[in-house]
Amino acid sequence: MGLMTKFKNKKYFNKVDYTVLNQDTLSKKTDVTVVVPVYNAIDFIEKTVDSVIIQSIGFHNITLILIDDQSSDGSREIVENYSRMYKNIVSVLLHENTGTPAFPRNLGAHLSNSTYLFYLDADDWLHREGILTLFELLEDTGGSYAVGKTIQVDPKGETVIGRYESSRERRDVSPFDIKHLFYHLGPRARMMRSDLIKDNGILYPEMKFAEDKQFFIDVILAAGTISTTTRPIYYLNRIDNNESLTKQTNYMEKMDSNIKVIKHVLDKNLPPEKEKPIINRLIEFDAITRMFDRNHFLKTKEKHEYYRKFHETVHLFNKAKRSYSLEETLIKPINQLYYTLAINEEYSKLEKLAHWSKKEDDGSIEMINGKPFKVLYLEHGEQLQIPVGVKGELIELEKAEEDIALTFQLSGNNIPVIEGIRLTGRTSVLNTKDISPKIEQSEDGRVTMRIHATDLQLPVDGYIFKLIHSDYESIMVPTKLEEKTTLPLIQGKQALFYTTINGNISLKIKEA
User: Fold this and answer.
1) CB–CB of 192/219 below 8 Å?
2) SS3 labels along 354-369
3) Is 425 strand, coil or helix?
4) Residue 243 has pLDDT above 60, yes or no
5) Cα separations (Å) of 349 from 20, 301, 355, 377, 382?
6) What is the DSSP string of 189-224?
């Protein structure tokens, strides 16, 4: 205790007594401090710590701070043993349980003496190049905040989450230029300058839910710019259905925490162009999608509590008397419809919409006045129409000697400009490639492009085929073409274009 810090509220860090193993290490400057809050993580803590030890940046350039929050499953003994084996592994043993990861994370930042700070949960792990990738990115740009790719691992396989922040290589851009950046605000795959946290006194709030959102909103606002990379950094563990605090928190408690974050943001009185994308996430996603468009809403017998919490959220925003309305921050048509029905207290229709969305919607689309809609039919001939932004179809595929010519037809209520193709490996999301061929797109939504054999130098795998637009958005492409088309590649491989059982165009790279 008594270590130097730039945090203004130094008394905060003395509210819980703790013991530090390898305390002398904290006086030595390293490149990166990795902070790991530990609580009953015995099944994965060794995998987590080992993933830091083998980092390609060199473990001697890292200080690893493990903060044990009174574990009772043997995790504390493992943490202590690591500190005996490695001088740069600092174990902080709290004398009482704090109830959330907030204080351990804050304490880790307080104790750190490195240029950069990185948070890692005790049941997740890092890609071997993860720390070096973000370190070099921040060193090259001189920036304060960088984010890379998070890969979620669950019984079904691997998926990329928070794709908006790792869809492109970006260098020192405004975070408000990245659509939906505020939708993914966990501690994963991000590195920041320690001084950014300490000089601005940014702390995790001690809440059971939404503490990550508030913390990283503050971090992003303080940083001003952000750099991103498509390279893999972090593996998020969803293998074991572990009982995290988030899963233990019921939805009303989650909404109470979310309302605190909304108030926190509104109290900042940000310019509308900065506030609106944050409010969009906190209300459209957290107070509409997560409130109504989920199975827990269909199952609950206390739907009136959901409506009460929704109106409490809207009242909080309206009381702030902003120059813009909540309606203009909503993006998804179904959420606009949920909002309208809830505001007008048409709860019966809202519940039918939620049931249709989660239980009965088969994805079928009807054309109304030449535009695609999903339609929910109610009693007495009444219906709810949800406009489809865009849908596409591959209508022609023509093979030449070394390339494939593709023609797509797009239709919709909001047809975007197509930027290219994303191929994502079915067995490994690391086998992902974006192709940006020359594209011709007409006003009627007809899109033509040509993929050369050299664009398809990929590992042997099956690939999900999507058209990409609006930076990271993508469209699965159905087709009525039945014939398979093979394109020879170098090194004895070939690309096979085919139609999946779901009717979408797909690609397989295989040995010839």
Assistant:
1) yes
2) HHHHHHHCCCCCEEEC
3) strand
4) no
5) 58, 17, 10, 10, 10
6) TEEEEHHHHHHTT------SSSHHHHHHHHHHHHH-
DSSP secondary structure string for all residues of 281-333: IIIIIIIIIHHHSSHHHHH-S-HHHHHHHHHHHHHHHHHT--SS-SGGG--SH
Please give the structure tokens belonging to residue 113.
């003496």
Alpha carbon of residue 34 to chain centroid: 20
Residue found by looking up tokens 């940046």 in the block: 57
CB-based contact 98:106 (threshold 8 Å): no
Residue 472 confidence class, pLDDT cut points 50, 70, 90 = confident
pLDDT of residue 364: 86
Handedness of CA 18, 22, 27, 28 (dihedral sign): negative
Q: Which residue has the tokens 């491989």?
A: 493
Q: How far is CA 504 from CA 245, 400, 425, 501, in A?
A: 39, 22, 15, 8
pLDDT, mean over the chain: 94
Chain length of the chain: 512
pLDDT-above-90 percentage for the chain: 87
Handedness of CA 322, 285, 244, 309 (dihedral sign): positive
What are the start-end ranges of the H helices in 96-207?
A: 102-111, 130-141, 194-199
Name the CA dihedral angle for 376, 377, 383, 385, rounded to a multiple of 10 degrees.
20
- Burial class of residue 491, CB neighbours in 10 A (0-12, 13-18, 19+): exposed
